[in-house]
Amino acid sequence: MGHENDESNLSFRVVGSWSAGTNRLYLMMERFDNYWDRNGIGAVAAGDDSWEIMIDADHGGDRHFALPDDYDDDDERQRNQGRFAQNAHYCWPDMPDANRAVGWKWFFNSKSTWHDVPPWGDYGFQLDGEVNSGEVTARIEVMTGAWDDFHWIGPDDSQIHTFTEGNTMGLGWVVHDMDSAEEDNGGASDGGWGINPNIQMWFDCVNCSDFLLAPIDPRVDFSSVETAVEEESWGRIKAAYIQ
Hints:
The protein is built from two helices and twelve strands, in the order E-E-E-H-E-E-E-E-E-E-E-E-E-H. With about 240 residues, the chain is mostly beta strands.
């Protein structure tokens, strides 16, 4: 954070969007990296290259991380992990047999097992290059819901947020770059590149950036946008953003 980026080491761009029809957020990243790290070695972000995303849907600046001293009861502490805002590391490729339990959407402070499956979460991932072996270009698409009151037990016990045009939400992200295997020495080579220089985002959303839930741009004729995806999919929105 706070350093000039070397684009021969890491370069990325992000597109964000939302849909009133599906009530979901849609994020896309294109990332060039001189080394795609997925070996689980290192002290930060489970030791892997990841995209850490913080979502504060109701713009309340809420905490999403409960510390051990915050609650005397472990069950109550778990109940408040990601309760009013959510934070997760997005890691690819999905490796359920890796040396730690980190799926594609690692909700690291929660016991939840349902947040990363449709209709609550889904992804697309393409990697031009090899994992743990030199330069790559990654193309990533993420769909996710957001919750005003998240309960790790399941969706029936949770209250999903309703996105409304014209409202402002809090959103933050950090792109974690673990560099090469030789440099995986417990954190010295770990880099984090954020939309906001305040790393406190990992703990709460007070310093997340404001994002307006904007209306559809009337200047864009979506019917004329050529895309390989279905007529009613969010890919049409993405294709228009790219143009």
